[in-house]
Design brief:
Glutaredoxin; Glutathione_S-Trfase_N; 21% strand; 3 helices; alpha+beta
Length: 81
């Protein structure tokens, strides 16, 4: 990816297998991200629901583009991989 790095936030819970897969995918592609644990951080949970309109995790915020769930192709498109 050229230019500036994308700002990536991943809203997760510790027990979510899709959250783990999403984080692994980002790490494998060298993408830095901020993890927000919505199970222990109420403010992050409120922020996630405001952005996505739902309670399910993972939710990825890639430069303002919201992706709900571990959607590998949508994540690739948002990151221009």
């Amino acid at each position: 990816m050229e230019g500036k790095k994308p700002v990536v936030k991943v809203y997760t819970t510790p027990t979510c297998p899709y959250c783990t897969m999403a984080k692994k995918f980002l790490k494998e592609n060298g993408i830095e991200f901020i993890e927000k644990n919505v199970a222990s951080d109420h403010a992050a949970a409120v922020e996630m629901v405001e952005k996505s309109g739902q309670m399910g995790v993972p939710v990825l915020d890639i430069d303002g583009e919201i992706i709900v769930g571990f959607d590998r192709e949508a994540i690739k498109r948002a990151l221009k991989l």
